[in-house]
Amino acid sequence: MKKILGIGNALVDIMTILENDIFLNTFNLHKGSMQLVDGDFSLKILTHAEEMKKELSSGGSAANTIHGLANLGMSTSFIGKTGKDNYGRFFADDMRSIGINPVLFEGNAETGCAIALISPDSERTFATYLGSAVELTADDLSEELFNNHDYFYIEGYLVQNRELILKAIQIAKRLDIKICIDLASYNVVEQNLEFLKDIVTNYVDIVFANEEEAKAFTGKDPEDALNEIATMCEIAIVKIGERGSLIKFEDQIYKIEPIECNCIDTTGAGDSYAAGFIYGLSCGYSLDKCGAIGSLMSGKVIEVIGAKMNESQWKEIKNHISKIAE
Q1: How many alpha carbons lie under 13 Å from residue 56 in its C-beta half-sphere?
Q2: Which of 144, 185, 213, 230 could cysteine-pair with 236, CB 3.0–4.6 Å?
Q3: Which range of residues forms the domain containing residue 94?
Q4: How many domains does the chain have?
C-alpha cells in the first residue's frame, strides 16, 4: 500500500452556523474571505457566537486531505505543531481515531483554530488564529519522518515559511517521494509568486490550483494556465468549480465533469478533491479516473457542514469509487 505524508497548519475547525450575515458585518469580516486574526480577536468571535450551533474537527488544508485519504483506507501521516491544551489533544485524538499517524510537535502558543462562519447561502468565511501552527520550523524536520512514504502533500499556506518548505521538499526529493502542492489561496500565490514558481519548477511533481489561484500563478484563464503550469511539473490540475476540473499530463488534457450535488457548505472541497485524486494515483488508476474520484469527493463533502463526512457517507463514496474503477 502506498503511504502519504502531509504537512500543514494543525488547526481545530470550529464550524459555526450563522442565521444571517449581520454577524460578519459586526466583526468586519468580508464574506467568503479567510482572514488571519490574533488570539484575542478569535476569543471575541467565539464569545459572541457562544449560542450558535457548532461542530469541531481536526482541520487545516493538508490535514483535511490526509483525513480524506485515511478514510479511503490509505496509510497516512501528518506533520504539524499544536499547543499543550485541550484543542491540541482533540486534534491528535481526532486524527488517531481514523488511523492517521500524527507527528505533532508541541509549541508555546495555544493550538490554532479556524472559525468557519457559514452563511445561510452556504458561503463560508474564515477567521483563522494560527497559534502554535506557525511555530513549526525547519529544525523540526528530519529525514526519518519522510522514510517509507510515497507521496508528500504540502498545503500552500505554509509557503510563507520558506526555510521550512525548502527543507521539506529537499528531503522528499532526495528520497524520491512524489511531491504534491495545493496553491491554497490566490493571495498566498500573489505574495509568494517567485518562490512558488521556483519550487514548482525544481521540486514539485503535482500541482493543484483553483481558477483564481491558477490566474494569480500564471496571469491566464484556466486552460492556458493549465498548459503553463504543466510545463513546470509532471501533472497539473486546475479546478473550475461547478464546471469541474482540468488535468494535464504530457500532451493529454482531461476535462472532468462535476457530480450533481446539493451544496450546503463548500469547506474542504479542494482538499477533498486532492484526497480523491491522490488516492486514484496511488491505486494506479488512469488520470481521468483519478479526476473523477476527486470530483466525487469534492461534490460529496460540500453536501455536509465542515470538511468531514460520516460513516454512511464514506460507504456511499467507496461504492461510487468501485464503479469508477471498473
Answers
A1: 15
A2: 230
A3: 4-325
A4: 1
Q: Do 180 and 153 form a contact (C-beta atoms < 8 A)?
A: yes
State pLDDT tens for residues 147-198. Answer: 999 999 999 999 989 999 999 999 999 999 999 999 988 888 999 999 999 9
CA angle 98, 309, 257 (to 5 degrees): 120
Q: How far apart are CA 299 and CA 312, in angstroms?
A: 15
3-state SS class at 287: helix
CB-CB contact of 101 with 108 (8 Å): no
Phi, psi angles (nearest 5°) of residue 153: -110, 125
The whole-angstrom separation of Cα 289 and Cα 231 is: 22
Inter-residue contact 272 to 297 (CB < 8 Å) = yes
Q: Which three cell numbers stand for residue 291?
A: 479526476
Strand locations in the chain (E): 3-7, 11-17, 34-36, 54-59, 75-82, 101-106, 111-118, 124-131, 151-155, 178-182, 206-210, 235-239, 245-249, 252-256
Please tell me whether the overall predicted TM-score, pTM, comes out greater than 0.85 for this model. Answer: yes
CATH of the domain at 73: 3.40.1190.20
Q: Which amino acid is at 24?
A: L
Please, how many CA atoms are within 13 Å of residue 274, restricted to the half-sphere of its CB? 32
